[in-house]
Amino acid sequence: MSHSKSYDWRPGPRAWWDPRGRGLGYWAFVLHRLTGLGLVAYLLLHLWMLRLLARGPDAWDAFIRTAKSPLFLVLDGVLLLGLVYHGINGLRLTWLGYGRVEERPARGVVLVLGLTALLWLAGMGALLLVVR
């Protein structure tokens, strides 16, 4: 019986950071984790910014003027992209969690990315119409 030299994979904290031998589904899940962390950070920032409501209308109006700046619109676009991707990929992961096996995992990831792009473009169009 011949044994081929296999990849020496050791489970543990370092294994998550090792990109060798990972497929497209792995990278989709890494992006899912990162967008989840980003959404939690945004939620905390959002709650922190709501304190301006207690300072009165002048403080809130000044913030709204800042929030309509081009930099904030770019950040809103990044937020929307992360939110849409996290939601759609979450549906794909839920599907997998119920035992639905993808014959071609890359196809599911490409579908998620395509739907994300379409919904993000629609959302950005709506955002730019409202801000104008």
Question: Layout of helices and strands, plus pairs?
Answer:
Elements: H1 24-49, H2 57-67, H3 70-97, H4 105-131
Helix pairs in contact: 1-3, 3-4
Question: What's the short story on this structure?
Answer:
With 132 residues, the protein is mostly helical. The protein has four helices and no strands. Helix 1 (24-49) packs across helix 3 (70-97) and helix 3 runs antiparallel to helix 4.
Give your account of this protein's structure:
It is a single chain. The protein has helices at residues 24-49, 57-67, 70-97, 105-131. The protein has 132 residues and is an all-alpha fold. It has a single domain (23-131), classed as 3 helical TM bundles of succinate and fumarate reductases, CATH 1.20.1300.10. The longest helix has 28 residues, at 70-97. The termini are far apart.
